[in-house]
Structures are given as structure tokens and as C-alpha cells.
Amino acid sequence: MSTQVIPSTAAITTWNIDPAHSVAEFKVKHMMISNVKGHFAKVSGTLTRDESELTNSHVEALIEAGSLETRDAQRDAHLKSEDFLHVEKFPTLSFKSTRIRRIREGELAVEGDLTIRGVTRNVSFAVEGPTGAAKDPWGNTRVAVSAIAKINRKDFGLTWNTALETGGILVGDEVTITLDVQFVQAA
Asked: How far apart are CA 124 and CA 180, in angstroms?
């Protein structure tokens, strides 16, 4: 008895992050009383999408650490220094998915390896989307996702802090990462 191999009919498509319509943001407690928010201006990456089963898809993203902006030049310089991201030694942050699970219609959990400052940890993003594909006025096909994850910055070697006179610390440990990403289908 011979085994017949049936070729897969699954369509695999490739999508690139549109940096002009995508943002990677973060927020962290400052002085234990409010949040400081920032973003990275330079984000790139690729989605390899299995059109027949979205959970078989794969995503990779790269962020230029030096593109960090918090609306305060002095704070930005400190966050780029050896105390935090050390952008001269670690110029990029990266994410590579390892597993995608469907939570419910329109919601996914995208797990993967997040690398910050040369330290890689498994992180799970709660993802809304992807949206249905849409054509832009120039004929490009686009999809979008929104994602959120919380990490402990100390898990990535971001341990700098200072005590406050009133008690507590200057920088909180928990960092919330928020992504709003548009992907453009590759030609």
C-alpha cells in the first residue's frame, strides 16, 4: 500500500510593516504617581501569514533603539545610555513569534521571543485583529493589528533606579508595551 502525499493548498502571503502607519509605544510609572509614555519611531518587520489557518502564521519585528522618543531630550539621552537600553552596544530590540493561539474571534495571543539589551525572554501579546484586508488608494492591500503586553524591565537587565526622598522609587518595574501596526502585502 503506497502513501499518497497531497500537496498543501494553503496560501502563504508575506506582509511588511508600514513604518509610517505603525507605532510601538511604552509606558512606565514615574515617581510612583504617574506614567511616562514614549515611542520608537523606527519599526520594521514581516508577517508571514497562513491564509487558511492564521495560527500557523509567523511575525518578526525590529525596532531601532536609538529612535526612542519621550518628548524630553534629557530623559531620552538617559534612556539610550548604559543605564537603560545602551543603544551603542544594543542598537535594536526584536521580536520573533513562536506560537499564535486564537482566544476568540478577532483576538489572538501571540507568544514569542522579545530581545531587549541582548536579553531574550518569552512574552505574550494580546492581539486584536488582524482586520480584514483593505485596499488603499494606491492599490496596496493592508491589514492591521493592535497588541499589548506587560513586561518587568528588570527581566531584561534594565535595573537602574533611584530612591525618592518621600519613599518609593523613581522608575516603576512594570512596562506596558502597546503596538498599533499596519502591514502591507508584499508584491
From this structure: 16
Count, residues in the chain = 187
Instruction: Answer whether 183's CB lies under 8 Å from 18's CB.
Output: yes
φ and ψ of 65, to 5 deg: -60, -35
Where helices occur in 32-165 by DSSP H, the ranges are: 73-80
How far CA 81 is from CA of 90, 109, 136, in Å, comes to 10, 32, 40
| pLDDT tens digit sequence for 99-146 | 999 998 889 999 999 999 999 999 999 999 877 888 989 899 999 999
Q: Give the pLDDT confidence of 148-169 residue by residue, as tens digits.
A: 999 987 888 767 556 546 655 4
Cα torsion angle, 98, 29, 182, 67, sign:
negative
**What is the model's pTM?**
0.85
What share of residues in the chain are helix, strand, coil (percent, to 5)? Answer: 10, 55, 35
102, three cell numbers: 486564537
* Radius of gyration of the chain, Cα coordinates, nearest whole angstrom: 19
Category of 139 on φ-ψ map: left (φ > 0), alpha (ψ -120 to 50) or beta: left
Q: Is the pLDDT of residue 39 over 90?
A: yes
